[in-house]
């Protein structure tokens, strides 16, 4: 599965302006609800439930919140670059400014894990993340995410 199969152009936010982890998850849930057609509270509650198990802030300014929803039939991804880094309770205690949200159907066991692994691999590339941080628009971020050769390695 390629990143382009997960993320649509509408699923990229170039300048999410939030001041907390909760606000970031709410903003992403709101955008996801518009794309998927679900109520944003269902998405937000799923993300909060997952965060209670342990942070999805993976370090070096990156978070990969994710969850499973019974109402969807395929994987969805959203990407947000924050206006200002926020405390996300990341494993390295560093603030987060890049967030990749992944939503999966409840039946997507292996596919969900493969997608998480792919996103994680892509965002472990520090030079790639610096390019994401330097993009000037959502369109440029989307192009970078979907054209990167690493995104094809799942």
CATH topology: Mannitol-specific EII, Chain A
Provide the residue-averaged pLDDT. Answer: 92
Q: Low-confidence parts, pLDDT < 50 over ≥5 residues?
A: 149-154
Secondary-structure class: alpha/beta
Principal-axis shape equals globular
Total of helices: 6
The structural domain count equals: 1
Radius of gyration: 14 Å
* Total strand segments: 6
> Could you spell the SSE succession in H and E letters?
HEHHEEEEEHHH
Describe the structure.
The chain is α/β, with parallel strands linked by helices. The protein is 44% helix and 26% strand. It has 6 helices and 6 strands, in the order αβααβββββααα. It has helices at 3-6, 21-36, 40-53, 109-123, 126-134, 138-147, and strands at residues 7-16, 57-59, 62-63, 66-69, 76-86, 96-105. Strands 1, 2, 3, 4, 5 and 6 form a 6-stranded mixed sheet that branches. A hairpin with a 2-residue loop joins strand 2 (57-59) and strand 3 (62-63). The chain is globular.
Please render the helix and strand layout as text.
Elements: H1 3-6, E1 7-16, H2 21-36, H3 40-53, E2 57-59, E3 62-63, E4 66-69, E5 76-86, E6 96-105, H4 109-123, H5 126-134, H6 138-147
Parallel strand pairs: 1-5, 3-6, 4-6
Antiparallel strand pairs: 2-3, 5-6
Search tags:
154 residues; alpha/beta; Mannitol-specific EII, Chain A; six-stranded mixed sheet; 6 helices; 6 strands; globular; disordered C terminus
What's this, in brief?
With 154 residues, this protein is an alpha/beta fold. Helix content is 44%, strand content 26%.
């Amino acid at each position: 599965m390629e990143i382009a199969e997960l993320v649509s152009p509408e699923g990229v936010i170039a300048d999410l302006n939030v001041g907390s982890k909760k606000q970031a998850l709410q903003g992403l849930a709101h955008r996801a609800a518009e794309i998927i057609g679900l109520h944003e509270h269902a998405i937000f509650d799923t993300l909060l439930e997952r965060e209670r198990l342990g942070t999805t802030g993976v370090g070096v300014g990156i978070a990969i919140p994710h969850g499973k929803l019974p109402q969807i039939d395929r994987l969805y991804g959203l990407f947000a670059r924050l206006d200002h880094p926020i405390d996300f309770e990341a494993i390295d205690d560093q603030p987060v400014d890049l967030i990749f949200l992944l939503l999966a159907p409840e039946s997507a066991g292996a596919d969900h894990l493969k997608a998480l692994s792919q996103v994680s691999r892509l965002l472990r590339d520090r030079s790639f993340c610096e390019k994401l941080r330097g993009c000037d628009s959502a369109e440029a971020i989307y192009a970078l995410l979907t054209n990167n050769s690493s995104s094809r390695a799942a």
